[in-house]
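Let us work through a complete example step by step.
Step 1: write down the sequence.
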Amino acid sequence: MTARRIVIENCSIATVDAHDTEYASGHVVVAGNRIEAVGAGAAPEGLEGVVRRIDASGHLATPGLVNTHHHFYQWITRGLATDHNLFDWLVALYPIWARIDESMVRAAAQGSLAVMARGGVTTAMDHHYVYPEGCGDLSGVIIRAARETGLRFTLARGSMDRSEKDGGLPPDFAVETLEGALAATEATIDEHHDPSFDAMTQVAVAPCSPFSVSTELLRQGAELARRRGVRLHTHGSETVEEEKFCHELFGMGPTDYFESTGWLGEDVWMAHCVHMNDSDIAAFARTRTGVAHCPSSNARLAAGIARVPDMLAAGVPVGLGVDGTASNESGELHTELRNALLINRLGAHREAALNARQALCLGTYGGAQVLGRSAQIGSLEPGKLADLVLWKLDTLAHASIADPVTALVFGAAAPVTLSLVNGEPVVENGRLLHVDEDAVARSTRAEAQRLARIAART
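Step 2: predict the structure and record it as tokens.
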């Protein structure tokens, strides 16, 4: 049977492959759900089964963006506690988050996914860890929302078992028991994890953070993940307060604590990693532990500047993350390309910290590495899955920037003319194909108002 082919021609191409191959004017051929060919000039003649031929003049083709850290449910609590550091922000918002239910989480997931997809994300993830008593099937509604949007997706099934009575921050009724969290996580793997090459849904084991879970949940969570062959995710070294907490409670810093519980390894990635010393970075490099860099959220919560240039130099896999939209209200990953570059230039390396192509790599191939999927996605190469984006760069916002990668990263947010996931269009001319954006806006507004009313009564 002849493969169904899409031919894209006359665009600039940044493949983000191992050699940083780029073409000033080239072609991409998609056959089914795979990239069949990438190269300079026009596509080969005589291709069979071509169902669509796109003249992409004035565009840059890149791999689809890969988001490596998010909390979808926070979409309905945006704009609150805007002048707080992390711990104060959590104290202010946990009582509200503890009231979420299935309808709220579905709407929040739809809003989070829609904005990311419209901005060039083809692989999303959600670290969901708030499961109040009687809240419904939160993991299921999140996964269904990703499927409806058309994005490739990893659910990091989170958990918390350290509540206020144990010295943690979450309300007592908003956490799970150790046994309940492990059982629910394994059930989610059973029901939803797909280990295949072209999987659209995968599951990771993801206890929330050192200050909201017990040592035993971390240890047994790691054992569960490795027994089931899935990845591990958590928050790490986000703030100085977290570092102080770990020293006071465990007698060691976050990285040593994670290593003592089995939480360093090439199957692990951690969010933030802002406060890392040379020894911490060396441990991550030695074990190939990945990092989800969230520059906007780190700035929003005054957490600090992560040492991304030093991590990359040491060989640590690093991707980009939106983080929850209660600490990054835009909810968009393509803005993180620019913010990662600019914020890191405020650090010790100044103008040598990151360049445009390194920033693009963080948002594509780096993210694929962190999610354990660099063999399938993250670069435009024959044989890889057809997850790609066409960015329109010939409008007023970018027309005078000669280099297309510089235009994409340094310039204003570029419109997405086409986004393919698994070879299927998800965005056309800036509009989602499978989601009614106006309906999602109405739904998220209504659920945010309902949550605010419930929280005000309790």
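Step 3: interpret the result. The chain has 14 helices and 17 strands.
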